[in-house]
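Same chain as my last thread, 1480 residues:
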Amino acid sequence: MAESVEMLPKSENKIHPLQVIEEQQQNRLHLNQVVSRFQKRCVLASWIRENIHKKECCFFERGVRGDVCKCDYSKTEHVDEAIKPEDFTGESWDRHRHIREVPTDAFGDISFGGLGQKTGKYARVSTDTSPEILYQLLTEQWKLTPPNLLISVTGGAKNFFLKAGLKSMFHRGLIKVAQTTGAWIITGGTHAGVMKHVGQAVRDYALSSSTQGQIVAIGVATWGIIHNRDALVHSEGCFPAHYLLDVKGQGRLSCLDNNHTHFLLVDDGTQGHYGVEIELRTRLEKCISGKRLGNKESGVTIPVVCVVLDGGPGTLNTIYNAMLNGTPCVILEGSGRIADVIAQVAGLPVSRVTIVHIHHLMKRFFGQEYENFADLKIIEWTKKIQDIIRMSHLLTVFRVSEDNRGDVDVAILQALLKASRTSESLGIDSWKRQLELAIAWNRVDIAETEIFTEESQWKSSDLHWAMFSALVGNKPQFVSLLLENGVSLRDFLQDEETLCELYKQLPGCFFLRKLAKRVHSSRRSRRPAIGIRARAHSGETIAMTHVSDEVRHLLGSFTKPLYPPSSTVNHFSMSMEDSSASLSKSQADSQAALREDAAEAPRDFGRDLFLWAVVQNSKELAEIAWEQCRDCMSAALAASKILKKMAEEGSDADEAEEMRELANHYEKHAIGVFSECYNSDEERAQKLLVRASLFWGRTTCLRLALEADDKIFIAQSGVQALLTQIWCGELSVDNPVWRVLLCMVFFPLIYTGFLVFRRDEVIQRETEKNEEIKTVEKVTGSTLRTNCSRLLRRLKPLGSWSRAACLYSSPQVKFYWNIVSYFAFLFLFAVVLMIDFQDTPSVWEVLLYVWLLSLVCEEVRQLFHDPDGFGFRKKARMYINDLWNILDVLSILLFIIGLAFRLTTELFYAGKVLLCIDFVVFCLRLMAIFTISRTLGPKIIIVRRMMMDMFFFMFLLSIWVVAYGVAKQGILIHNDNRLDWIVRGAVYEPYRTIFGDFPTNIDYAAFDIESCSMNGTDPLKPKCPVLNENQTPAFPEWLTIIMLCVYLLFANILLLNLLIAIFNFTFQEVQDNTDRIWKFQRYELIKEYHSRPAAPPPFIILSHLYLFIRNMVLCRPPIVYTEFKNELPENEEEELLSWEALMKDRYLLSTQQEQSQSMERRILDTAQKLLVSFLRVAAISDQLEREEETSSDATVKRLARLEEQVVQSAKALQWIMDSLKSQGFAAREAPSLTLTSSDESPDTYASTSEKEDGFHVNARQFHYPNSKLTRFSVPEEKVPWEVSFSSYMPTYYASEDIEDHVDGSQSDTLDNYRNPGGRTGIRGRGALSRLGPNLNVDLVLTRWRDNERSVLEYLAVWGESRGTLALPSGPVQSADHLPVTLKRTMGKKLYEKLSEKVPEGTKVFEGYVDDPRNTDNAWVETTVLNIHLDRTSQVMLDINNMVLSSHGGLQWQEVSGRTRLDSNQRESLRQVAEFHNRKF
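reply #2:
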């Protein structure tokens, strides 16, 4: 025991059991997370080992350096089987045979350490890996979202420097385009050159935008050149691999960039060789570009753009190959080397891009590197640069000095759109593809400047798909842009299927969960009726009636369904997660009743879109849709009600808060629109408040505002003026109260003009207006057409009976009579209780009972009176929620109980006591008369709030009262068993003490033994305290006095002052809102007395009897009042809505002006101006740096022009000399006029502008078709045979002997055939059948589509080899015959009939064709033969039969510019169209 006591003080760190449980739960959660990560890693490792491989050398053969193999790996880095392989004995090392694929051993997560602990993912992959596998690795295993754009960044990798201005623009633009479009950025992945700049841009974004999504930067690098790559190797994967970025010690190798997010390390089994990854990177980019944008089944593919900075010859090859594949390229001028070379010549005519010019630019931008360039390489690069600038639609040069905005992202996106615009698919399809890209990128600025221009003509139906995509993708700026450019909501939402589809695509939100629950419950309840359909679909079904039911639940059951019941049911797939919310109670409403109420409701398509946006809590989309609503004020108030109801029912606190904020936002909109309306026309504005909205369930703005608890809206002066007008009835609102009270008693005064009626005011106002018009007519002599006289004839003064009826039916007068009646009731009640309460009820007491009966009947009438159609449940709920109704029910119940007791002899007195208490309740109910007062009404609200504060204060005070009372009673009194005196001493006396009634039994001096009972036997005296032998109190006096002092200190001083402070705080807090709350609650009082019968109690019972007979016995329809709800005629409705729309536009304009003048807007404008100034300064500095270069360029250009003139003069003199020689004037050998350059003849610099269009381009493509041969580069200036080209050494090629070259004996034969188009870069006949011209016929069969000759059509055949449509064509021996190959296409019989038509045909064109198969010695000459057929001819019938039986092999197509043919056949078709005078 002693040991235990000694140990107790040592246990200072105590652990609560709940803390232990919480720690165990956290540990269990952490363990589950670790297990989950481990399982995911195992799955990833298994997938990678199965699908991803690396390459390794399996045969070690010493190279030049000692123990280093020819694969450049050392002997120790080879596997044991490769050292002494038995399979390769006696063989020499071969890359293709001795490098094999094995499962990769380098993959996982890579951590670079350092500041920020950057991590990424990596994998070592083989060069032969399928790009599809890599795409799966990126998207499925590494969980990357498929891109909307692929940006391939290439350029300089070494000695690369960017100017500060261009660097800032590049970083900002690249990240902006990647962020806004959801793009992937692909680079070389190493920490050098342009790849390093991309990494820095990604790093800057990560530091500044930590809350947004990650920028995906994928590095595709060569495994064999990675420094410190051993840290990445592990057979089971590294999670993570700690990679050291060691730039200083990397030597010839390269380090990975630490800012890239993913790495694909390409392995070919060798080490130290750069450029291994290029081929796989190209295939991967091509694979990604073939994927559908957004994983859609239809639509465009993922676009690819190449961004070039700096770079050398390898970058030029990359640009050239990318553009041949149709990839647009963006060149950043000023970044250096090859990028600047291309930027300098971009936009120049191809004829001016000469070899000399490229020499000069290479020397200027490459510096010392230029000395290592061979002349043949310069020629090749010149040819490639010429081809690049010829494809101008794929080339975009970003020039800082010319681009005022300086946005690289805009340049990149413009390049993509420019390439898309000039593709083969012309017309609306091209614009559609561009728009789809812009929507996918969410770049509305690009769409505004590049797509929605004057050139593009859109119909509303053409943009419906774009509107749907923008709505579903939550892109409000695009929605607004589409509406501005012709999208009609009426056309877009005319089909209910579209609206249903929008509700299907709702994001996961509260409304979707409730809708899913409703759909599921509805389908389950109707399963017997639709069992067959239910089995036909695997998902749930939805109709707009489901949406209507749910919206009706949110708005309130007093509204009519927004969408009528429809038999159309649409398939709707729902996940179980989205259907977890509970179904609302209104689901129990009868569907049959709904169909009866839902007459054909009018459609407002702006409302449909607005409702769809509101229920998903999308502020931007809802704002745009609200501007399209016809009934905008009702829409705003309905949105406020819906959002507050969803916030009330939702469980997510953050989402509920957002809903409440949006609800308040639309309440402000409603206030703004109503204020504009009221300031413009008070009468129309008040009509808007009580007009039954056909678009929002036939309810009113006033009712919606009340249901939404929009107190600020109700508190507006315009709304209060309407309520005041209703309160006064037909009396003028300007009548003083004393006049009304006086006329209530002396009603004949109403006939003297003592009391003003509203009808009198209207007549007086219209009379004055009519007099003013007559005065104007007299002065001007013109006739003003007005409705004043017509209105005056229709308005007649009130008659005698009407004036009396209007006086006593006014709610104001009813209220005053009820006050008088209530005071009379209380007076009668008091008289009965105090004077005339007999055993047998007297006449006055019976009158009191009758009076009470009339009050009971009135309460019953109020409970069942439902002009708004709330339903009994909601009406009862509203009735009980009113404090005054609670007091009414309580007072009536107490009166009935007291009356029952009073009528019995035994409980007669108890009954009187209850009735007396009931009188107190009736008196409290009297406070309700002050609620109509503008002065006292708000004070009653403050009193109610203070009563709540007092309740909590009394709870706190009771603690002190009971604590002191029990302690005092226990000390003074010993074992008192009388409960009443115990409560009196423990509670009542301490409570009285607070108010100054100090007890006398706690002090010896004030103790009187006669005032108490010794044993407690006297029921009228308290029990005496404990006494000693001297009959004096034995309790310690000092203790009781101290206890009293402490009690009074806390209870009387501290707590009471605390109560005063609480009341003061409540008063200050509520004071600002009491006026608003009072105005809001005033509506119910006004509505109550508006519907109340005119007679006050007890005479009101006669009115109740009349109503009972009329409604229940005679079953007549209830009387409809228009003061709170008015159905307007259609014409007046349309006019009012048009006026409201005008006021809404004014409100929006004023709101925009306020925003533009706000401080935040000014700050943004200032920041924008500073940014523009910075860009201009950067541009000026770059301009100054270029001035020296520009001056030297001007000198070079002048020298070039001078040299060109000298050459032309030399050529003219040479021609003169040749002419003289031919005439026999050559006496002696003339000196040569050729220039000194051995390679450049005078004709080199001759102007070839007139021949430029004639130079073939396809015949000089680098890659000869259907072969692996490459042509010799022939720049534009070297194409003509007349131009000397001493270094020209083309390869010989013939399809039958590909590898044979022409020897000297064959040269003479080839020289007999020279391509008339000039040099092509290859000799021999190539893939053609003979040397010289190879004749070809393009057969163009045409017809008129109809007898009116409106459309010209041609016959096209499906080319299986190309997979596209083509003209019937083929080689021929003579142009007067058809190609024999057409027999198989068209059949022998039809071929013979067409052959007979050949003499009747027209040769539209005949001559040389720029064909890619052309060589220096063989070329294609084509004859375009047009045979126009009569629609009624036999040949035409045979062709039509053949078209029907060909199953698409033959097709009639319209002759137009949209035709998809190759360039040569397209030109042939254009010539045929020109021949028939048709626009192409």
